[in-house]
From TrEMBL:
InterPro entries: Cro/C1-type_HTH, Lambda_DNA-bd_dom_sf. Gene3D superfamilies: lambda repressor-like DNA-binding domains. It comes from the Bacteria. The lineage of its organism: Bacteria, Pseudomonadati, Pseudomonadota, Gammaproteobacteria, Alteromonadales. CDD domains: HTH_XRE. Residues 12-70 form the HTH cro/C1-type domain. This is XRE family transcriptional regulator.
């Protein structure tokens, strides 16, 4: 395994949109909370590309949900 996971794209978009955030604003909000999630990483995740476990953990922290709620069910 290469240390990467595929996240649930629909869930990611739903969470972000429910907060009224664009990808850019979400990246800024993560940075404000000292979470290392860039806009490029958000785009990768929402396009269904693999991201680092750390990214999944930091997004889960931002949304205050368990990491497994972000994971793709078809792993």
């Amino acid at each position: 395994m290469n240390g990467r996971v595929k996240l649930n794209t629909q869930r990611l978009k739903e969470l972000r949109r429910n907060m009224g955030l664009s990808q850019e604003k979400l990246a800024c909000a993560c940075q404000d909370k000292a979470l290392c999630v860039s806009i490029a990483t958000l785009k990768r995740a929402e396009c269904g590309l693999n991201v680092y476990h750390r990214t999944a953990r930091e997004l889960a922290l931002f949304y205050q949900i368990p990491v497994y709620d972000l994971l793709n069910d078809t792993l």
